[in-house]
Amino acid sequence: MAKFDTIIRAGTIATASDIFSCDIGIRDGRIAALGHDLGTADEFIDATGRLVLPGGIDSHVHISQPSGPDVVMADDFESATRSAAFGGNTTILPFCLQEKGQSLRQALKDYHALAEGNCHIDTSFHLIISEPTEQVLGQELPGLVADGYTSFKVFMTYEGLALADREILEVMSVARETGALVMVHAENYDAIRFLTDRLELAGKTSPRYHATSRPIVVEREATHRAISLAELIGVNVMIVHVSNRESMEEIRRAQAKGLNVSGETCPQYLMLTEKDLDGLNMEGAKYVCSPPPRDEASQAACWEGIQTGVFSVFSSDHCPFRYNDSQGKLTAKGRTSFRWVPNGIPGVATRLPILFSEGVNRGRIDLNRFVALTSTNHAKTYGLYPRKGTIAVGSDADIAIWDPKKKVTLTHALLKDGSDYTPYEGLNVTGWPELTMVRGQCIVKDGELIGSKGFGQYIKRETASFIKPPVGSVRADG
Ligand code: URP
Ligand code: ZN
Ligand code: ZN
Description:
Blueprint: E1 4-14, E2 19-27, E3 30-35, E4 41-46, E5 51-54, E6 56-61, H1 77-86, E7 89-97, H2 104-115, E8 122-123, E9 126-128, H3 134-146, E10 151-155, H4 165-178, E11 181-185, H5 189-201, H6 208-212, H7 216-233, E12 237-239, H8 245-256, E13 261-265, H9 268-271, H10 296-308, E14 311-314, H11 351-361, H12 367-381, E15 399-409, E16 428-438, E17 441-445, E18 448-449
Parallel strand pairs: 1-4, 1-5, 6-7, 7-8, 7-9, 9-10, 10-11, 11-12, 12-13, 13-14
Antiparallel strand pairs: 1-2, 2-3, 5-15, 15-16, 16-17, 17-18
Helix pairs in contact: 3-4, 7-8
This protein binds N-(aminocarbonyl)-beta-alanine and zinc ion (2 copies).
The site of N-(aminocarbonyl)-beta-alanine has 9 residues, from loops.
């Protein structure tokens, strides 16, 4: 019997479909055998009493993204991938933003230069299309999809990013031709600008009014419109960071009609509410993200979307800014309105423990769905499967070993990111990733970073595949 580099012994393995006990033999970064009595290895890892899961894949992460004048994101590739590894992740998919006047190729060149040699875990990039010129649509995008950039995000809101419906249709049309996936940030830009101006005129400028300026109807309308545009073109779309029932129901209805519409939700929509934006002084700025957290009924709706399969992926939307920093949440002097608070919160390390604790341990979802929502479905949706997202012979040995009973109080110091706070400070969770392994190499073990930066590789992707919602999750009556 050939020797393995590593054998993980006696753990309980869970994939998106099965739970079984056996040893895992790893050779040359890949899973080479599953079974018992696998023989010899250079290293043995004892996983008795532990869960052995596919490493987390977080398909919605922002790193070093240009965020406007005088604003700097709190994470670069080193700190974001480190934090992700502490949270049990083995691959993340950040967004490469095309700035106005920039070609996509140049944006990618710059973004790769930031990542190169700095990543602890594997990465692959989505594109953000901010200027769909003829050159972008006719030349660059088709070439880039062929080169493995098989998903792009379009924004229906944000100064400098929002695309008109016609532009979204043009991007969708290229995606349809090339087999790429369009991710949509669905909020109505004009409605938000109108409400923001009105609030400011009335002197309502504290962070809590961020939520007032982006009510559910603004998200629901844009979600409906995005789905309608996608239906017109016949393209696969992913509605990202869904926060409430009405938007979730739009997606459910589209799925019931047989449209290839996927949905994503995030921890902030399960754990936070708009009341969190109420803090003393500017404390509420810590929770400013878009769409904003809503209310308890919206949290319940997002759980329902998770349980029924309307949401196939659970991502962090990690978009970190430091709080106590004039280049972060406490924006530059004179910019006192919520309008200027950078949108986004950190969460790449807390995503998995929160869903494990609140979902699996509280009996809301089973372990297989946890794996699907946090790893396998990301790999399938974004063209990484079966290399990533499962535990199978031939797959990369991307593995997280969990102590399902470990009790941890979340605190920022545990998360090793570049920010200076976590929105989940003080939250008690049960279940914690003790070891994170990427392509057979331990990156984090028992709270220590072992791997050296630069181990993380860039992964070229295939075109995506649509995950049909489970039978029974969609009501025929819509
Ligand atoms: O507030 C958020 N979500 N910021 C990140 C950018 C985005 O829209 O995903
Ligand atoms: Zn967005
Ligand atoms: Zn985002």
